[in-house]
From TrEMBL:
SMART domains: GAF (SM00065). Residues 23-169, 187-332 form the GAF domain. GO terms for molecular function: phosphatase activity. It comes from the Bacteria. Gene3D superfamilies: 3.30.450.40. This is GAF domain-containing protein. SUPFAM superfamilies: GAF domain-like.
């Protein structure tokens, strides 16, 4: 009964802090401290999963050495497998269990048993985990596992809350930056380059690009990109194939595996470039689709509704920038430059 009371007090303490503190780091460290003090263990760690780089990112910990943080973790792919399969991972002997990696480092660290529970967000997506380490062999009870699962859920909510707050702030900054550039500059190449850079950073993808319809050649031509190699860009324009036609019809197109999707062109070049998933968003001027904004991920990626919605907003702003610059050039009657420069894409008008 006393132990259950301790669990209740710890959860209440974290819950109160969740609604009274704006400091994300303080809250995560409180969760780690509460887990250690309540469970009477050697150390605890909160980590996030970076899918793009396939590595764990420690966000809060107590009791672990710098050496262990550098070289003691188990491969993410292996740990994720167990968390998805069993919903937690318990290892009684961390120095010999072959489900783990770097056993010698764990032995040097003085780690005996390990318990890892998942951290998930809406939809059940795994974003990381909460891990306990003991200094002597220990078998955790179901009540202890349930308590740690509850603490992991608190950590997930704190991280998601901070992420949403950060996204709102980031979205506002990107939209303001782009709006100011559209209003103050007619340098379309500069505006579109800023847009591709902002998009790649926001979505945390490998690269992004903007391609516009060339009606003379019936192709899509690169006009701005970020993160793509010169060799990849020199491979030539895209013909209006199935995936391109879908986007030009105003549809969002998600390619989960660029190497196997029959709609994708230049598969060898994409494999060499390290492109796995692609999101194509139509760019419109008025009601007419004039091009495509593309995001390229280096790992298999599922884009959320929130991400797709914001990407669509940015693509519409890109279309507005193109239309704005094009109308100005038309008013200047600089038809020759329109045909000879990047502005030759008649579909913009």
């Amino acid at each position: 009964m006393n132990r259950e009371n301790d669990y209740f007090k710890a959860i209440c303490k974290v819950s109160r802090a969740f609604w009274t503190t704006l400091n994300h780091d303080e809250l995560l460290h409180l969760i780690v401290d509460s887990a250690i003090d309540t469970m009477k263990v050697k150390a605890a760690l909160l980590f996030l999963l970076d899918e793009e780089k396939e590595e764990f990112l420690p966000v809060a910990q107590r009791g672990l050495s710098e050496n262990y943080l550098r070289s003691g973790f188990t491969a993410p792919r292996k740990l994720v497998f167990f968390l998805e399969k069993e919903n937690y991972l318990f290892v009684e002997d961390a120095t010999s269990d072959t489900r783990l990696d770097n056993l010698e480092v764990k032995k040097q660290e003085g780690i005996a048993s390990i318990l890892v529970v998942p951290m998930r967000v809406k939809g059940g997506k795994l974003i990381g985990g909460l891990c306990l380490y003991t200094g002597s062999p220990r078998v955790f009870t179901q009540a202890e596992i349930d308590f740690l699962m509850a603490m992991g859920e608190q950590a997930s909510m704190a991280i998601e809350h901070a992420r949403l707050f950060g996204k709102i702030k980031q979205n506002t900054g990107i939209l303001l930056d782009l709006a100011v550039n559209i209003q103050s500059s007619l340098d379309l190449k500069k505006i579109l380059h800023i847009l591709t850079a902002d998009v790649a950073e926001y979505f945390k993808v490998k690269a992004s690009s903007i391609l516009l319809v060339n009606e003379n050649r019936n192709t899509l031509d690169f006009v701005a990109s970020y993160g793509l190699s010169e060799e990849y860009l020199k491979r030539g324009p895209l013909t209006l194939d199935k995936s391109v036609q879908e986007t030009l019809a105003g549809e969002l197109v998600v390619v989960r595996d660029a190497l196997t999707d029959e709609r994708v062109q230049h598969k060898k070049e994409k494999e060499k470039e390290g492109i796995v998933s692609i999101l194509s968003i139509p760019i419109k001027a008025g009601e007419k689709v004039i091009g495509v904004m593309r995001l390229y991920s280096g790992t298999r990626r599922e884009f959320t509704e929130e991400e797709i919605l914001f990407g669509t907003v940015l693509a519409h702003l890109g279309g507005l920038a193109i239309q704005n610059a094009s109308l100005y050039l038309m008013l200047e009657s600089d038809v020759k430059d329109l045909r000879e420069n990047i502005w030759s894409h008649r579909a913009w008008f």
